[in-house]
Design a protein that fits this description.
Rossmann fold; globular; eight-stranded mixed sheet; binds iron/sulfur cluster; alpha/beta; single chain
Amino acid sequence: MTQQAQPILQVRNLVTRIGGKRGFGNAVDDVSFDLMPGETLGLVGESGSGKSMTCLSVLRLTPPAATHITGGQVIFDGEDLLRKTGAEMRGYRGRRISMILQDPMRALNPVLTVGEQIFESLRLHRGLRGAALREAACELLERVRIPDPAAGLTAYPHHFSGGMRQRVVGAIALAGNPDILIADEPTTALDVTVQAAFLDLLKSIQRQDRLGILFVTHDFAVVSRMCDRVAVMYAGRIVETAPTDMLFDRPRHPYTESLLRSVPDVDRREERLYAIPGQPPSVFAPRTGCPFAPRCPRAMDRCRQETPPTRRLDDGHEVSCWLHEE
Ligand code: SF4
């Protein structure tokens, strides 16, 4: 990976509130990270840790009836997206920052041909019409390795396998030549070999386009294959960020240690798989101190009273834990 000096995306102290009958809470709680051009940053954590909500907040696509972005900045190309009007945001979504969702069958319209769905994106984001539109659609299908692209345009999603459908979703996401791709568990619905092929394809497109990828997953095998750096999320907060190899070799946050310990290892024969005790806190529960304290094997009195700040350690980790107090 070659990096430019400037990040393509800077998220600073992002807060997204969620509310309903059960109360209010921060689904995204003071989240900050950078994404460089050509880099893949993994967002990992258990379900409900705030990974998807963070991505939706970057694009300002959180459900408007139940959520409200109350603080922070999302700086893309020098502009704060949180200050843009709805009409201005439509110029960014799909064209500059695109998104792939986890279930290709839900992302594609079953009653429209693959071609009609790709044409729609190309018309919207690149203003193409007529023969140029068809040619660009064929090129996109070729890029995502759909055999016989011209025939593929006339097919319906159910004519394709799961892996091919996910590649079509990828083609639609790439239609606007975006700078950033947000991939939210894009391979969860695929079997392992199809998943590997899709990840390799994504990597090769990333190298060609210097695409910055924000990659949401709970699968550490996918993290090691895809990500240059990893941000670990817990209870809406980023608790540790580090280059991928470093995070695997020497996790510094007890939650990251526990997550890695709970990954099955074929070389490690154990009677029982390790499971992190307890449950993540409800987003609506009142918060005091470190949110991981009730489950943390190394919790101290202070952890239950004060929230640890994020510190940058000498080895390049950024970690939010009182064990690493200066
Ligand atoms: S701050 Fe305390 S409770 Fe939280 S992860 Fe660190 S040691 Fe555990």
